[in-house]
Amino acid sequence: MQRSAWVPLGDPLYVAYHDDEWGTPEHDNRRLFELLTLEGAQAGLSWSTILHKRESYRRAFAGFDPKKVARLDAEKLLQDAGIVRNRLKVESAISNAARVLELDSLDEYLWSFVGGEPLVNRPRTLAEIPAETAESRAMSKDLKKRGFRFVGPTVCYAFMQAAGLVDDHTVDCFRATG
Description:
- This protein has nine helices and two strands.
- It is mainly alpha-helical.
- It has one domain: Endonuclease III, domain 1.
- Helix 2 (29-42) packs across helix 3, helix 2 (29-42) packs across helix 9 and helix 8 crosses helix 9 (153-162).
């Protein structure tokens, strides 16, 4: 079975992430908040690091329930070896949860940047996949205006790929459709 070239085939968790999640349109508000938080946590690190800590993140961040996350204690979270203990990233997750609660629907808000439908690209090579796009720049700018942190255009594009707002499976990948 052919997969996108970036998938480390020796890592079963990563393979499952690619095969079952990455690029699949997500509309659950809690899952979207989780992905946005994890992509922010990943900034400057490998996705593999975050993926392997995801269950610890889910436990530490109350299943990514924004109401609960907004009330978490950053100092307590910074003691948790199961997550990336970067103060700015932890504090941003708590603050971002409060920002999510100010929205009517995180799903509708985030999907508005792609007109409510996934943007389907069919890159031939990894070099054809951008780090950011006009849509991710617009998302980043608006999120920042609303007080969100760790949401630069590159983080937003990675989030868009993860949550299926953008489908960047390469043409040779079995997940490529249309």
